[in-house]
Amino acid sequence: MTRYVAIGDSFTEGLGDGLADGSMRGWADLVAAGLAAGEGQEVQYANLAVRGRLLEPIVHEQLEAALSLSPTPTLLSLNGGGNDMLRPSGDMTRLAELTEQAIRRCTEAGVHMLLLSGADPSERLPFGSVMRRKGEQLTALVKDFQTRYDVTFVDVFHDAEIRKAPYWSADRLHLNGAGHRRVAGLVLNALGHPTAAHVVDPGPNESRGVLAEARYYREHVLPWLHRRVRGRSSGDDRSGKFQTWIDIQTA
């Protein structure tokens, strides 16, 4: 039986893929369901990811909690570093070192690791070129681990399709439901469960007029800046949505 646990930040929590009851689904939930369908048997699933988390607490706290689950996981996915990139002090080499620590810890525990680079949001973000440069650097460093360790690596950062506007939420930083569906397909294919890539109709061109941009800054950028000034995170006082094993049945 596969026992899959996901750790990370908002990308893995599923922010942007909201359900009717207000809960978040996301690509990791979809992968768990896809594994159950592909293997034709029940899968156990946990998700400890919390929005706003930096990579260091993900590796030092979430990882240890994940490996402490009973029974032990057979598969663990890790993505992180996006929140570190939003800070001027973010050091991509340090993030790669933390990622390697996590890989070694999973190897010691006999748990297969699935590594993902996050989708690239930089085209429509303020200072997007800085974000893309950091993302390119971190992705290259993490990708190199697949030649040195027995890990599965999924390079979402260089998926050109998912960079298009219809895959992103209004905040331009988090994927929407379509984006999470595409990531899930990329992951399931990498894990040996062939899945058609999710593609959406591009629709009309995205509005980037003065009024639209002013509204975007007012509704999304300024609240983020206010949290940074106060030393707050969107994930404060939150915990992972599935902290113990839940059973995912076959479809």
Summary tags:
251 residues; alpha/beta; Rossmann fold; 6-stranded mixed β-sheet; globular
**Overall pLDDT confidence:** 91
**Class of secondary structure makeup:** alpha/beta
Give the termini distance in whole angstroms: 16 Å
Order of helices and strands: EHHEHEHHEHEHHE
Strand order of the largest sheet: 5-4-3-1-2-6
**Number of strand segments:** 6
CATH architecture: 3-Layer(aba) Sandwich
The helix tally amounts to 8
Outline the low-pLDDT stretches: none
- Profile the largest sheet: 6 strands, mixed
Rounded to an integer, what's the Rg over CA atoms?
18 Å
Helix content: 40-55%
The CATH class, by name, is: Alpha Beta
Work out the count of structural domains.
1
Beta fraction of the residues? Answer: 5-15%
CATH-defined fold name = Rossmann fold
Which geometry do the CA atoms define?
globular
Q: What's the CATH H-level homologous superfamily?
A: SGNH hydrolase
